[in-house]
Structures are given as structure tokens and as C-alpha cells.
Request: fold
Amino acid sequence: MPPTDPMSPPETVAASIEASQWLDAPAYRVANLVSTTLELAPVTARKVQDALHGTWLGHPLHPALATLPIGTWTLAFGLDTAASLRLNQSTRVAKTADIALQVGAAGAVVAAASGMADWRQIHGRDRRTGLVHAAVNATALGLTLGSLALRRRGRRAPARALSAAGWLALMGGAWLGGHMVYRRGVGTDHADRSPEPREYVPVIAADALKEDRPVRVAVPDPAARAEVGIVLVRHRGRIHAMGSRCSHMGGPLDEGWVQDGGIVCPWHGSRYCLASGRVQNGPSTAPQPRHAVRVRDGVVEIRRQQEPGDEALTLDDMKRAAAAPMPEVPEGARKADEVLFEHHEMMRRLFERIAAMSPDDPERRDMMRVLAGELEIHEHVEDEIFYPAVRAVSEDVPVAHAEHQQLADMLAVTLRLGTSSPEFEAQLQALHQAVDHHASSEEHSMFVEAQRLGDARLRVLGAQIEDMLDEERESRARTAFRNLKTRLLEGL
Ligand code: FES
Ligand SMILES: [Fe+2]
Ligand SMILES: [Fe+2]
Reply:
């Protein structure tokens, strides 16, 4: 059998916690205790719970509160270490460390309350990790409180050892918290934020919707190769539509019920305002995606209400882009996509030539420098001229920018290698594939969508690009700068 990559030690720890089914019994007991306490509390407890979840904040409050003990206890740890190393033993510094520990302890208590409120509503392996996370952080708090007690009695040396141990435990707890959020997605938005449908689409006969009875419909999202679920509710004469997957943990809102003008998730009881999608009750903290609704000939049609900052393009956006005033088209100008395609082809040929050269050919290095220069010029003209213009009609620009960054990083690695080394061959091939992928996706998608700008506008852009290409190649200062950069990347 081929050897398998062993897991790293942190991964092994996380995996073994997640697989520890024996943690379920204590977890349920603790969760029941927390729930009973909250249920016995006065009605206002719901408001307190929502405040602890961060419903008012738009995302969970717990991570923000957790920064209090992390920051202050780290400060105290630093000051204590400086004192232990006799770098600074003033009483002012010692006092500051004590205050930092006290402030952090108060923050840790509030962070724990907010964490517990969130934790009792998560399931399965995340609940197990959450329990260990809480136990480790409770240990950190216990050690810190012990340290504060010793400090009051003037026993500084053991007090510092205790709070240092508390700080270490806190770091372990923070790592587990990070695992839950970044690896497992606990506390992140689970709603489907697809921009589809961008234009009104018919989804159901209006008379199929009964008062306060949620119904799920689905529309395709071709880019994601998935379907988007949307829940429709007729309420007091109006039809409302929002994403059917609950932003809290993905519960099915269409299986929920209507209460006080909101739809309630059957999983943990988050309630979303039917009219706005906003959270009326937690544990959810993120609003639901919203859809505009209209009825045409007895059929309900819906359209996604795009979110601010969203890159999604609609027909209106494209009409606006095509209607923008246009400068005069220079005579004989070629279209931007033609100019860029020609440059892509030139770079492809350069790759082929370098790959075909003998590893010991001294000209290989020179050809690499030519390629580096052309690649840089190409990215520059696209970033400066083409992408800003095409953004109005194509959603590919953000990814294209990211790919440029990745190509620059890969080029830097390639330039550093000796052109006769086997590593160079492998790296050159990888760079070639990356450039080819990027250029091909521009040619097959972005350049096609760019046609929406219209022939004349593309010719104006093409003329600008050709001017800039000439300028970049002819300018002595620019060429010297590019050469210097290449030499620096090569390691002089
Ligand atoms: S999934 Fe938790 S409230 Fe909806
Ligand atoms: Fe590009
Ligand atoms: Fe390109």
C-alpha cells in the first residue's frame, strides 16, 4: 500500500476530540443545565440570549468578547516574563499585569456566557469540540483566578507560574475555537447567498399559496451548478420570499411556521421578519437573503434582491454600461479582446520555446526574462485598462485579479531557480499551465462577455491597450525597472 500522509499533531488532537462519542453524555447534561437556567429566567431572558448570540451585531458576539482575555492575559504574560527575566521589576509594571488579568477575567466570564448560549444549539462532533473548548477555557480562567488570589497575598513567583499556565491553556482553547469556526463553519452564515434569480422568473401559481403556509420552490444557479431553495409565504395579503436555508445552521425554513410576522426555523427557533428577512430572534445573527415578488397572470414571479457590494450583474447593469457616453473610436483600432488574445498567443509561444530549449542553453535565462517582462506588462494593461471596463459586464474580474497575483508569485519562484535544474522544468510547466488556464478562461468567458460593451467601446479600449503596450516596451525607465525587479527576483 502506498504510504499515506500522517495527520499533523493539531489535526490528530482535533480529530480525536471530534470522534469522542463518550463526550455526548456530559455535553447533553451541561446543555440541559444551561437551557433550564435560561428557561427559568424571566421573559427578558430571550432578549439577553439574543444579545449574547450577537443578533444585534450581525454576527456572533463570542469571538469579539474572546479577544478581551486573549489581549489582556497576553499583556500580563509579557509583563510577568519581563519581570521574571529582571528586565523590568517596577511595582507599576506588576500592578499593570494584575489589572490586565482582572479585566481579562471579567471579559472571560462574559465571553463564556455568550459561548455557552451559542454552544447549546450546536450538534454532533462540533458539540464535543465545543465542550472541550469550554473546559480548557474554564481551566484557563481557574488558573488566572488562582494567580490573582496569590498576587493579593504577595506571592508573585507562583502567581506568575499559574497565570502563565492559564495563558497557555487559553491559547489551546483559542485554537479549538478557531478550528470550530474556520474548519467546521460554526457561527458562519449558512444561508444560500446565490445571486439567482437575477431577473424575475415564474415559480408557482399564486393560488397555490395558502395564508401563513410556507412553501419551498427552487431555481437553478448555473454558475454554482446547484439549485437555490426559496421559501414563499402568503401573509396578510402579501407574498414574501426569502432563502429557504436558515443562515444559522442551514435549517429548512419551509418546514417552519409563521409567528408574529416572522418565519420560525424548526431547528433552533430563529425567527426572520417576513417583510425584510432580518433576524427577530436568535440564535441566528445573519439576515436571510431576500427576493422581490410580483404576480403576473396569476403566477408568482421572484427576483433576488442583490446585496450591497455583491459582484452580481443584472440586465439593468448591462444596459447602463452599454449606454455610457463614448469617446471617439480611433481609426483602424482593433478590439481589446483581439489585442489581448494576440498577446496571450505570444506568451504561449514563449513558453513553448523555453520548454524546447536545452537545459544548458545560456539563452534560456534571457528568454525567461523576456517572458517575465511580457507577463508583467500583460497583467499591468489588463489591471489598468481592461478589467475596470469589463467589470460592468462580467463577473470574472475578481477571480482574474486573484489569478494575476498567483501568476506573479509563481513567476517569482521560477525566476529564482537555475534554468538547468530539474526543479525549473517542473516549475516552468506549472507556470505554463497556470498562465494557460488564466488566458483560456479569459478567452472563453470574460472576452465573450466583454462583447456586451459593444464593438465601438471595445475598439476604444483596444487602442488604449496597444498604446500602453508600446509605452511599456519603449519606455527606458519602465524597462529598467522591470529588469531590476527580475534580477532581484533571480537573486542578482
Ligand atoms: S438552523 Fe438554527 S435556527 Fe435555523
Ligand atoms: Fe489576465
Ligand atoms: Fe490576459
